[in-house]
Amino acid sequence: MNSIRRALNHVRRTLIFVSLFHVFINTVVLFLIFATITVFTILPLFYATIPAGIYFIPAIFITYRKIKLKDAEEKIPDLEWQLRTAEDNIMKDNEVTQSLNDRVTAKIAHLRSLTLFDGKKVGLKFFGIFGLALLFLFVSSSDFTYDTLKDANAVTGFFNKIDDIGSLIKAKKLNISDSEGDRDIYGDPSVAQPGTDPLLLELTQEQSQPDLSKINDPRNLEFTKKSQAEDIGGAIADSTYEETIKNKKLVKKYFEQLAGE
Amino acid sequence: MKVNDVQESFAEILAHASKVIVGQEEMLKQMITAILCDSNVLLEGYPGLAKTLSIRTLAQLMDLKFSRIQGTPDLMPSDITGTYILDDTSGKRQFKFQQGPLFANIVLMDEINRATPKTQSALLEAMQEKQVTVGTKTFLLERPFFVLATQNPIEQEGTYPLPEAQSDRFLLKIKVDYPTIEEEYEIVDRYTESIQIPDLKPLLKKETLAAMQDLVRKVPVANDIKRFAVELVNKTRKHKELIEYGASPRASIGLILASKARALLEGKDYVNKDIIKHMSFPILRHRIILNFEAERNNFNEDDVIRYLLK
Q1: Are residues B17 and B122 part of one domain?
Q2: What sign does the dihedral A218-A224-A227-A228 (CA atoms) show?
Q3: A165 pLDDT above the threshold of 70
Q4: How far apart are CA A76 and CA A98, in angstroms?
Q5: CB contact under 8 A, B2 and A103
Q6: Same domain, B172 and B101
Q7: Scanning every residue of chain B, which has its alpha carbon at the shortest distance from the alpha carbon of A90?
Q8: Angle at B13 between CA B8 and CA B16, to 5 degrees
Q9: Which residues of A touch B222 (CB under 8 A)?
Q10: pLDDT of the residue at A169
Q11: Which end of chain B, N or C, is surrounded by fewer C-beta atoms within 10 Å?
Q12: Given this model, what pLDDT does residue A176 score?
């Protein structure tokens, strides 16, 4: 009985190790994603640990509580239903249970952590970590930040366009809260605020038809011989040029001297 | 006794039985399952499908006393249980109990639905209590005691179909199918050349069989498996759109017990879900009554069980 108990504990420990390893890998992936974002947005790297920590701590407890022998059976079809049967009947002592326990113990003796790893899944995660690490290194070494993208605005005008669209939306939005003290910068809120009463518009055929009685008779237009514009008179100096300058002669002489005349 | 001993013993029995019976391996395995559970079987199949021959062969191979009763409308309970007869061989007249065909290890009740309900009840009492009461005296039946009753699905006129409460006492209802073309070819070949049935020697002692029956109950079952079996039986009571009357808790007991025996027969010391699914058909098919809607859609009991298993 003790041997099967030890064997089942060994399976459970292996499952815990495998599950925690997965949680750890997921945390690393999450950290790298957020670390890249923090470098990109010039935030302290410390912020990347927050989402990773938020995931890691509850995930450990949830994973630990979720661990079942069924998970091991799914990885090793040769042990299907046997681990659970042995665990549920651990207190029974007869020849059939003993036979099951002996066989399960013998099979578990060869159980390694690697057997319970999903190679494809782990490989994919490692590949993801490698990719994210490369991205993180690139972003952190090349000073490629959000500001860099903003500077590229001059070339692409991308951010300008976004700003334009943003201000357009803002302008149309009649935000009542945009006020300076008690005075609303967009005017009287009661006027600016759209009403809720439905506006009834009716178009009838009669109204849209022209009233023939109001149409004037055609009149003959007389065209004069002169097609050129009439003389508008001589040029008159603008009053702005008629400045009264004191000591006009002295000033004139001064400017002439400056001009070297 | 070890788990492998059971498998090896019955593998040998099946191999010897195949000298007499062509095919029908699943039917034989289910019969053995019922014998291992110390329970009874209702066999349904058309005439000429080796039902009687199969059970007679198994009795021979297991060194069990075999008797056969033909169900007829005039069969009386005393015809099967036995009766008191006047005996004057010793010069002194006295009533002596003459044992009926029920005093055997394996009883084949052919066409049980042709016997009157009174006789059916006498048989079912013997099945359940493993004893027979005649007059004021009760006689214990020899163990192992196994009843195999057959029913013919055709020619229902003049029959007394088993009430649901009584058919529930049978652990399994085995449906016997026609043999395949190849099997039938071999049957023809084997039984038209010689009329001599191969001589079969007993391979199993009664004591060994009793030890195997004890072993069946010791097979461990996972809690998830028990839950699956109980939920399956419970489903028969909930699916009112197809089933008018579902199976009783006796079906849950039977399903687990039969699965344990089947696991042992396959050399397994645990029960898995496949075994439960496999055994759910013979366990449940006579314990559920389909409603009109199911019958209108041409569903039989096996179709409904298959639907419940999905």
Answers
A1: yes
A2: negative
A3: no
A4: 21
A5: no
A6: yes
A7: B220
A8: 125
A9: 81, 84-85, 87-89
A10: 47
A11: C
A12: 46
Distance CA B289, CA B286 (A): 8
Residue matched to tokens 């069990």: B64
Using a CB–CB cutoff of 8 Å, tell me whether A92 touches chain B: yes
Which domain, by its residues, includes B113? 1-217
Asked if residues B58 and B47 have their Cβ atoms less than 8 Å apart, the reply is no
CB contact under 8 A, A96 and B224: no
Q: Where are the domains of chain A?
A: 2-141, 145-177
Q: Six-digit token pair at A229?
A: 């514009």
Name the average pLDDT for chain A. 75
Say yes or no: B227 and B173 in one domain. no
Is B231 in the same domain as B136?
Answer: no
Report, as an integer, the average pLDDT of A20-24. Answer: 88
The residue among B217, B236, B264 that closes a domain is B217
Per-residue pLDDT of A114-141, as tens digits, reads 677 777 888 888 888 888 888 888 877 7
Rounded CA gap, A119 and A117, in Å? 6
pLDDT of residue A174: 45
Assembly ipTM: 0.77
Answer whether A81 sits within 8 Å of B222, measured CB to CB: yes
Positions in chain B whose pLDDT score sits under 70:
155-156, 194-197
Min Cα–Cα distance to chain A from B265, Å: 13
CA of residue A257 relative to chain centroid, distance: 70
Of B164, B196, B217, the one marking the end of a domain is: B217
Is there a single domain that holds both residue B109 and residue B204?
yes
Q: How many domains does chain B have?
A: 2
Query: In three state form, how does the secondary structure of B262-286 look?
Result: HHHHCCCCCCCHHHHHHHHHHHHCC
Closest partner residue to B3 (CB to CB) among A85, A88, A99 is A99
Q: What is the CATH number of the domain that holds B183?
A: 3.40.50.300
- One domain, residues B88 and B186: yes
Partner-chain contact A95 B2, CB within 8 Å? yes
Buried b (16+ CB within 10 A) or exposed e, B210-223: eebbebbebbbbbe
The beta-carbon neighbor of B269 closest among A70, A84, A99 is: A99
Q: Which of A92, A95, A96 is best to mutate for the B interface (most B CBs within 10 A)? A: A96
* Residue to test with chain A: of B224, B265, B269, most A Cβ within 10 A: B269
Same domain (yes/no): B213, B224? no
B257: CATH: 1.10.8.80
B33 or A163: which leads in pLDDT: B33
Looking at the fold, whether B55 and B178 belong to one and the same domain comes out as: yes
